[in-house]
Amino acid sequence: MATDTPMFPIGPGTRVWPVRRPPEKRRFGLRPHYQCGLAGILLFLAVSMVRSYFRPPAPPPFKPLPPMRTLAVQITEGQPMTINATELSRAGEERSENVLRMCLCWCPPGRFFMGGGPKGPSGRYLDGEPFPVVISRGFWIGKFEVTQDEWQQVMGKTLLQQRAMDPKQPRPLGDNSRRDHAGMGQDYPIYFTSYREAEEFCYRLSEIERDAGRLEPGWVYRLPTEAEWEFACRAGTTTATAFGDELGSVRANFDGAVPFNNAPAGPFLRLTKPVGSYPGNAWGIHDMHGNVWEWCCKINRPGLARGPFAAVKKSTPEQTIRGGCWYEPGHQCLSTTGLSLQVNGRGSGLGFRVALVSTELWREADHSR
């Protein structure tokens, strides 16, 4: 044990007590080798943070390239070669360059079986035997039904003016007030349009776009043929509707109290809804089931069923309406459902949508039984 050295002489008989040295106060801190380790860790963390701050963002996850699209081109010696880029578009691709900013969806060339649908008690198809159809060229079709605002911009008439036109014309739907008022608003579909008026709308829109230089040479707006309409409605499906073999009021605007197949019953709204209120099909096209019946410009199948619109005058030409409407039961709103209608017919459940097609490259849908 360490003691302090005495500062005076020690003689005989002197008692001496050892004096304990007070312990030295220890400074706070780590031993040198611990200090070096901690400094190294802090330096590593600082460098890592700086590197992560200046590091470029990680690349997006790898996605395989889509299959290359090809286009058959016929080359004639001495003639310039032209390729229609529209044919390279994908199903559901959208465009909206016209004066109305009307959105159109691309429908590519393809094949499908038209008609068929559900079978009746006798085992026969209610909408006729299905038969193959070839869509030889792609086309654009309205993403939505033509709205009241679009109608007014092109035709210069409001819905009320349209409804009041030519009161002597036959009203196949009668004077039933429930059906004579079906919703008004800019985004609601136009109705009370005859076939000729729908054709006139397409003609005027084509002229407006052509004069403005926005319409490609050889392309024109018109009503879709029945085959084009069903091809666009199906969007690659083979079921009764674009959403499967059931149809409930969550998918379309119709008399929801009478759904199709095993779909749950829903409300009956008793009027149209703004376009796009319900889900679109696989190609992004909305309201092909219900809301308003839609005019088609050519009947592509024999023996088309006749509905309540028909038989105003037997001598009056007929065209087809497709898709059902807001007051129809579910089985009248399928992909295959169509009725023949006099071209001068009007009603609160009758509208249309446009198609944009090539007059030079388009060949009418060919079918064989």
Q: What does this 3D model show about the protein?
A:
InterPro entries: CTDL_fold (IPR016187), Sulfatase_Mod_Factor_Kinase (IPR051043), SUMF_dom (IPR005532), SUMF_sf (IPR042095). Helix content is 18%, strand content 15%. The protein contains six helices and twelve strands. It has 369 residues and is α+β, with helices and mostly antiparallel strands. Residues 59-85, 168-178, 303-315 and 361-369 have low confidence and may be disordered. The radius of gyration is 38 Å and the shape is elongated. It has a five-stranded antiparallel sheet.
Summarize the structure.
This protein has 369 residues and is α+β, with helices and mostly antiparallel strands. Helices cover 18% and strands 15% of the residues. The strands form three sheets. Strands 1-2-5-11-6 form a five-stranded antiparallel β-sheet. A four-stranded mixed β-sheet has the order 9-8-7-10, covered by helices on one side. The chain has a three-stranded antiparallel β-sheet with strand order 3-4-12, with helices on one face.
Descriptive labels:
about 375 residues, alpha+beta, paralog of FGE (formylglycine-generating enzyme), five-stranded antiparallel sheet, 6 helices, about 15% strand, SUMF_dom
